[in-house]
Amino acid sequence: MEKLKVIERIYNPHLRKSMDSPLITVLIGPRQSGKTTSINTCLEGISGNRKFYLNLDSLFERDRVKKNENYLLEQIEETLGFGLSLLKERFYLFIDEAQKLPLIFESIKILYDKYSPRLKIIISGSSSLELLDRTAETLAGRVQILRIYPFSISEASLYEEIGDFECAKSLYNGIFSGSLTQNFLSKLSKEFKPGSKKKMLLVDKLITRSLFPPTFSKIDEDTIPRWLIDYIDTYVERDMRSVKDIGNIEGYRRVVAQLSSRVGNLLEYNRLGNDAGVNQITTKKYVAIWQESLIGFLLSPFFLNISTRIKKAKKVYFFDNALIWALGGFKGREIIKASGEIGHYFENLIIADFIKWGINLEKPPSFYFWQKSHASEIDMVISTGGITIPVEIKYSTLWDNKYLHSIDMFKEKHKGKKLKIPFSLIIYRGEFMMPRKDVFCSPIWLFC
CATH number of the domain at 12-147, out of 1.10.10.10, 3.40.50.300, 1.10.10.60, 3.30.450.40? Predict the structure, then answer.
């Protein structure tokens, strides 16, 4: 069998840095997002007698831990060949699916308190809800949390050998730092222009194609819809059933399906509950669980007054476009275009990509949307390092001056309020241009 290709992930620098931290590294993220592969890659250079991997997905391993409260320490010292207290170098303990055995967290706490920093502990699991609950209860103040998501656009490009991180990384650094300039973007566009056609074909495919790593490495293109159905069934039936107070699992499934039909739109709990056949209190609980499971997220409206921001309706998005496509019944591309949904798919792809890049930075940006009226709306507002950047997202390949309207309304609304806006950004399927000196129009392929 051909060896599976393992690529560099955008969060790997942060993961490698966390390996030097004395804190316990906790990886959370949806099932099949690449957590275990990334950890194993980071530990490849560690000799065999300085690491131990425990997979608690195994009933056999869970039983062994239950029967012996000193199981972890004994396995570490058996691997070393001597007592852990005598170790001069670092030992790496990796526990996968830790949430499946709650009592393991007390053992982890005891080991950490006695042997840190010579013992580095890494925990991961496919049920982020339970994992976060357990760490909050037992390991408070001892953990560093990293979030792992399906591929970003540039990771998909790297896997497909179309491009690498250089272009996207440079672009995101410029955006998040507020340092983008005309010369920089012009140079970037010229340098990476030769690969733009292949990148545009990839972006077009990613409108409905899954970004979960196994769909690139293990699953044939034709069987991805079947894999997505199985993934959703596993997510709902296996992962969510274990969440306390989930209640009616079929009601939860209907709420998630209804959320997929509202991507890019405001979330109204009354309408969502009515359409899913669930009362409003339960609907709010299910939406909170959906967010915490890292399948999707809500974007808050941008207000200078934080209390106002909290009260107002939020917008719905998913971390993988193919989940929207699957939950919506695998509609054909022409139907998606004809219904006007293609713009929401495109918007979802880009906003999720921004969050994937920003989430594990030392100081993660905050992301919002802004809406004055239906005609004056900013798809994404980035708040980072004391600056604010309005971002418009357009599926079009052609420039239209009307795209400036919402940006102008946003600036007018916040005029005189000491909001620092270094530039505005429009992301679309056309070519790089500047309709005026404070607005950059970036082709989507630059994010590949």
Answer: 3.40.50.300
